[in-house]
Each structure stands twice: as structure tokens, then as C-alpha cells.
Write a structure and sequence with these properties.
five-stranded parallel beta sheet; alpha/beta; serine acetyltransferase, domain 1
Length: 304
């Protein structure tokens, strides 16, 4: 039997944690965890998915006659847990912007109440995403198949939840929810990205959508598409300036094929078609078709 010096390793890990806490000015005082739990958020999202789509993503033994009871019970459980996680994030943030415990409790409860009230609207948005996938993919045999199987739809369920949390001032919870989908699907959507109804990612693996991207209605894109930033402005001290608009605006009815890279605060006009493996850093006119050949023939510095 191998004899590990576990006690020595425990002491060394203790020292490493304290070095980090001191460098980040974190408290060493005993107490409960200070920030949200990834595992708890994963459980909350699973409950919310079941509440929004009970007969498809809920428990297998569920019957129509008990659907509303299940939804009510599941929502209560999920939302109570979400308040706990919201309180942890707000309490963690209070290190820099002090707030009383009662203010934090009130803010957490109000944020989750607003999130709950948004759920019917999120369900309708997700219905439009599912329908867009069914109508846009000839291989899809039913909307049920799309909901149960398509990674792009799973990513959008997470994104619709995450974006609302982001809007409600809970960016860490939002980012955790987004990264849970990223890990499962390979689709990386920042929760700040604004995505309108009827959005469809076919296949989806390798898609990256940045924080300040704005996507219109009925947009379709394929695997390995990047809607990213071209440059990262810094302040006088060399620190990255956060929150500036730096990602593309994609107008209604745009199609972007596999491997396309669109960088910077450029606009893809309504109805434009972006071919595979192109690199775009300029605005694209409404209705234009952009391919590698058309970019090679375009005047320097101008997309078609």
C-alpha cells in the first residue's frame, strides 16, 4: 500500500489558499461559503427546464393531469434555491459596495421574483427557437426531436435563462449558467449577448458569441462561427476597458455559414448571407452575399 503524506499536503494546500486569500484581500474568518455554487446552479437549471417543458424535459412518469402541480412544485423549489444563490453573489459583491444583510435579502428576492415573472416570455422565445430549428433543418423530423436532441437548443435554453439573470444584476450566476451549456455543447454564448426570437444554430459546435453582440430575428448560423471582438481598448493605466460595444450587430434574417469569423462592432445588414470560412471586419450591406471570392474581388477595406 502506498503511503501518502496526506497531512503534509493538507497543510501545504492550507498555506496556498491563505496566500491567495491574502493577495486578493479575502477574509480568513470562519463561516459559510462566500459565493455561488456551480452544482446548485446546475440543479436549478434542470428544474427550470422541467418547469418550462414539463412533458418533454420533466420526469418520465409525469402525466398531463398533474402537469400544473408538478410545474408549481418545481418552480417553488428552483426559485427558493435561486434566491440563496443570488444572495451569495450579492453578498460577495458587497465587499466592494457595502450593503446591509436586509438590503441584500431584499435585492435577491426581488431579482428572483422578476426572473420568475419573465419565465412565460422566455418559454415563448424558446418555442420560436425550437420552431426555427425544425423549419431550418431538413433532417429534423419533429419539434420534439429538436427540443430533446439539438445542442443549439440546449445552449439557447441556458442562454435565455442566463441573459435574464445578467439583466437583473446577477452576472456571476448568469455566467455559471452559460458555462454549464458551454461545457455540454461546445457552444460559447456570453450571457450579455442580446438574441431575438427564432434563433437557430445548426450543429453549433465551436460557435462563439461575445458579450456585446446583438442578434436580430430569424438569424441562422452554423458550426464554428465567431462573433468576436477585433480589439480590446485599454485605459491610461493599460487596463482593459470593460463593457464597451465591441462585438457584431447581426440584423434580421441573416445566415452565417460554418467557420465564418466576424470581428468588431460591424453590422451585417438584414438578409445578408455570409459564406463559410470568411473573415469580416467591415459592415456588410443588407441582402449582400459574401464569399471568399467576393471578398478577394472587393475594394480593399470594404465588404460587399
Amino acid at each position: 500500500m502506498v503511503n501518502f503524506e496526506v497531512n503534509d499536503i493538507v497543510r501545504a494546500l492550507h498555506d496556498a489558499r491563505n496566500e491567495w486569500r491574502d493577495s486578493q484581500r479575502r477574509s480568513r474568518e470562519p463561516g459559510a461559503r462566500e459565493f455561488p455554487s456551480r452544482d446548485a446552479l446546475a440543479q436549478i437549471v434542470e428544474l427550470l427546464k422541467g418547469a418550462l417543458f414539463p412533458m418533454r424535459l420533466g420526469p418520465p412518469e409525469l402525466h398531463h393531469e398533474s402537469e400544473d402541480f408538478y410545474v408549481g412544485h418545481t418552480l417553488n423549489t428552483a426559485l427558493e434555491s435561486l434566491v440563496v444563490q443570488a444572495r451569495l453573489e450579492l453578498n460577495f459583491n458587497a465587499r466592494h459596495q457595502p450593503r446591509s444583510p436586509s438590503e441584500i435579502d431584499q435585492a435577491a428576492t426581488e431579482a428572483v421574483r422578476e426572473f420568475a415573472n419573465a419565465l412565460p416570455g422566455l418559454r415563448r422565445l424558446l418555442d420560436s427557437d425550437v420552431l426555427a430549428a425544425y423549419q431550418g433543418d431538413p433532417a429534423a423530423r419533429s419539434v420534439d426531436e429538436v427540443l430533446l436532441c439539438y445542442p443549439g437548443v440546449l445552449a439557447m435554453i441556458h442562454h435565455r435563462f442566463a441573459h435574464r439573470l445578467y439583466e437583473l444584476g446577477l452576472p456571476l450566476l448568469a455566467r455559471i449558467v452559460a458555462e454549464l451549456a458551454h461545457g455540454q455543447t461546445g457552444i460559447d454564448i456570453h450571457p450579455g449577448a442580446q438574441i431575438d426570437a427564432g434563433f437557430f444554430m445548426d450543429h453549433g459546435t465551436g460557435v462563439v458569441i461575445g458579450e456585446t453582440a446583438v442578434i436580430g430575428k430569424r438569424v441562422r448560423l452554423y458550426q464554428a462561427v465567431t462573433l468576436g471582438a477585433k480589439r480590446f481598448p485599454t485605459d491610461a493605466e493599460g487596463n482593459l476597458q470593460k463593457g464597451l460595444p465591441r462585438h457584431p450587430v447581426v440584423e434580421d434574417d441573416v445566415v452565417i455559414y460554418a467557420g465564418a469569423t466576424i470581428l468588431g462592432r460591424v453590422t451585417l445588414g438584414k438578409g445578408a448571407v455570409i459564406g463559410g470560412n470568411v473573415w469580416i471586419t467591415e459592415d456588410v450591406k443588407p441582402g449582400a452575399s459574401v464569399t471568399q471570392a467576393s471578398l478577394q474581388n472587393a475594394p480593399k477595406g470594404h465588404a460587399p
